[in-house]
Specification:
- With 87 residues, this protein is α+β, with helices and mostly antiparallel strands.
- It has one domain: 2-Layer Sandwich (Histidine-containing Protein, Chain: A), CATH 3.30.1340.
- 34% of the residues lie in helices and 25% in strands.
- It contains three helices and four strands; from the N terminus they run βαββαβα.
Amino acid sequence: MASIVKKITVKNKSGLHARPAALFVQVANKFDSRITVKNDTEEVNGKSIMGILMLGAEQGSEIIIEAEGHDAQAALVELEKIIISEE
């Protein structure tokens, strides 16, 4: 099964901190696809709150989301909305 990869810049002024990270994981877990999130130094499970927080993604940083599975495209669309939200 093919995977879809997208590079996204974090827009939230506080970065991917507790609240948006929790929302990201909540949304990621609604999908069957395997979701991986990467930055320059880490690669983590997109369905793990600890993993997402470990990335330490600050405003302006770039992360790469990879989704693999039958609902990968839908997962990426929903997860990107969280990353590019300024709230």
